[in-house]
Predict the 3D structure of the following.
Amino acid sequence: MRYAALSTVRQSDVEKQVSIGQGRSDVRDRLHLLHMREQAAVIEEQGVQLVNPERIFLSSPHMGGAERVLVQEVFDSNWIAPTGPMVTRFEEDLAQLTGMGHVAALSSGTAALHLALRLSDISLGDEVWGATMTFIGGVAPILYLGAKPVFLDVDRDNFLLDLDLLEDKLKAASVKGTLPKALITTDLYGHVVDGSRIAALRREYGFTWISDTAEAVGAYRDGQHAGAGADFVILSFNGNKIITTSGGGALASNNAATIDQARFLSTQARDPAPHYEHTTYGYNYRLSNVCAAIGVGQLQVLSQRVARRRQIHALYRERLGRLPGFVLSSEASGMQANRWLTTVQIRSKEAGLNRETIRLALEADNIESRPLWKPMHMQPVFAEARYYGEGVAARAFEEGLCLPSGSSMADGDVDRICSIIEDTATQR
Ligand SMILES: Cc1ncc(COP(=O)(O)O)c(C=O)c1O
């Protein structure tokens, strides 16, 4: 029997917590409790008892030390607001990192994408194309604007938009006069799309290129930071990302006027006047000066965080790459992935087991893992959306598992995870 003492995750206890949660307006808490209930149901069904109290998470925040001092500075200055000197400093540091001329610090990556689409003039009925394998925040803003998402398949090695397929479909759409107004590329799990190819396609077909680099902060391709060359770059500093501001994001561009406009829209589109005057509507999307201080501190340790995640990936590769049917994602030539999350594909025929068996074995040992992101064209909310592809993303979702990859993990944690996977795989 595997370990256990997560008594809080007993089905009955979780039911109690969920019903308490029902009275609250905090949707995130409720979703968290529902997730716990789902986990508990699965675990109880399997008859597994949890006893290992040392939970290993997929990707935990990892502070560097300077963040506290910087937050204290903010408190001392009393700039406790969604503006202030630390927001400006964070934006300057991000411009330097990404090589983009201008950056607006925002409350989330999803907000950044919403603004990028609005600033690209996307509105009712416009087509926006993008990779089907992504996180919901990387596409939901298309719906906020009443536009139409079209999903394309990904490549099997890096789960990035399949550029041959994209080129074919753009060619066909050009003949029919149905080219997309915007394209979202997603640098999934810290892999980086081939920007020079996208730039060439943009020249030919004239769409706006939005690079969703939420998962690829600190990743490079051909010596340039992820997103280089795009019209807009989206960054996320959510709590699970390689660096975090607890929650936060940014929008980068080489166009100063566009980023000025993003700042305007993110602060309720207030026209210059002594009273509140609005010729258009905006959003409350600006990043807090307190959170920006955390971001400034986190950027100081970004290269160390990337190095450690790459090391963790190498440890997994060495151990799991030996198991039949276990495939880790490759790194295309010229790519320096940040290895935000290490993913493994478990080809059940060769491995003799599937990814769900591994996920439950890890969960029984109090280790969080997660299937690869379920493709958007398979999500009920996008049942009406068009999809082009041959099922590569669907298969990757079926076979793929994200493994704990946080930079604060010890080598011993990776060893514990690999041992469980090896034991489970060899017992088959
Ligand atoms: C690919 C991708 N796009 C967009 C987002 C949205 O970012 P945020 O959570 O900061 O809104 C995320 C992650 O959270 C993401 O992984």
